[in-house]
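User: quick one, sequence for these tokens?
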């Protein structure tokens, strides 16, 4: 391999820039060229490439977002779109591709590999931590810190006004952000899609803690949780069925995806970029690099997408005990 391409795709996550920097510098270290591909698979179809050298990625390790931009491409889902993408790769003499993104992006990478036998390696970049084969996806740790900071701030106003706050956090269909940030933020209750305890139990528990002397409370709701139709209906239900609290809702939204990556995410991105490039150079393809048992390990892309990420049951128990 003499030239590798790198793209970021799907929802951005903090640490993507650090990963781009790592891929570019690992290529330079191994004396091969690196092409940055703009706007994910869209840029692959349009041939929107730019050669990047070690100096072109200076000053980005601490930046949120992605300098290569990102997109969710509809055209890449068509055979014609993928053919155009492949032709552009061949024309630019790119012989391997590093895809930084989530499960949708990995599906795209796998199809490219299957149809054209094109070497691909994935780096899991998403705040949701919903990829199998890594204990941490890139951006998860930073998003957690952002959410905990937001919970701390909301707690100030909640306790000043004796209020109950429902705070909705991202995570798509899983509750990793909610569970971890909820424990770290001292939440009274944490509602996640993996565990449905029902509305009555929630109201009971909040009533009990109110009677035990608590004057304010925080409930973290994962966006994928189905206890209420949505967080505003959940708030209305609780408001009608318990007394003593002024109830408010705060939906944190896309601020969870922004900001400077944490130290953990910068180190993880740097390790993953090196491992991705070196895997391609060793002739490995169709794998994702991940952090397992403290080491960089490879998991087949298919397994990374389809494997279930499990909620840590011990965390659930700790969260229960902490809300005593
Ligand atoms: O996958 C990352 C994520 O931020 C999810 O947590 C969220 O459900 C989704 O993307 C939001 O997507 P969009 O940016 O398209 O609104």
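Assistant:
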């Amino acid at each position: 391999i003499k030239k590798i391409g790198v793209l970021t795709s799907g929802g951005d996550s903090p640490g993507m820039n650090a990963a781009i920097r790592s891929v570019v510098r690992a290529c330079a270290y191994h004396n091969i060229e690196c092409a940055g591909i703009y706007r994910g698979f869209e840029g692959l179809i349009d041939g929107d490439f730019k050669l990047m050298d070690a100096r072109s990625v200076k000053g980005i390790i601490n930046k949120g977002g992605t300098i290569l931009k990102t997109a969710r491409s509809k055209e890449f889902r068509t055979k014609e779109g993928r053919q155009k993408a492949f032709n552009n790769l061949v024309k630019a003499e790119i012989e391997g591709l590093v895809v930084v993104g989530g499960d949708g992006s990995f599906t795209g990478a796998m199809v490219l590999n299957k149809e054209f036998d094109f070497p691909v390696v994935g780096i899991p970049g998403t705040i949701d931590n919903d990829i199998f084969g890594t204990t941490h996806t890139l951006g998860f740790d930073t998003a957690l810190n952002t959410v905990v900071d937001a919970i701390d701030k909301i707690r100030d106003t909640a306790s000043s006004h004796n209020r109950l706050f429902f705070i909705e956090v991202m995570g798509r269909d899983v509750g990793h952000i909610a569970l971890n940030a909820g424990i770290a933020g001292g939440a009274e209750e944490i509602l996640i899609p993996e565990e449905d305890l029902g509305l009555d139990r929630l109201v009971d528990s909040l009533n009990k803690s109110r009677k035990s002397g608590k004057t304010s409370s925080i409930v973290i709701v994962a966006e994928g949780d189905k206890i209420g139709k949505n967080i505003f209906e959940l708030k209305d239900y609780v408001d009608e069925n318990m007394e003593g609290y002024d109830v408010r809702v705060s939906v944190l939204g896309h601020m969870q995806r922004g900001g400077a990556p944490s130290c953990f995410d910068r180190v993880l991105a740097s390790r993953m970029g090196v491992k991705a490039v070196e895997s391609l150079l060793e002739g490995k393809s169709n794998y994702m690099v991940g952090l397992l048992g403290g080491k960089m390990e490879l998991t087949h892309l298919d397994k990374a997408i389809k494997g279930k990420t499990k909620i840590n049951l011990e965390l659930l128990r700790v969260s229960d005990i902490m809300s005593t």
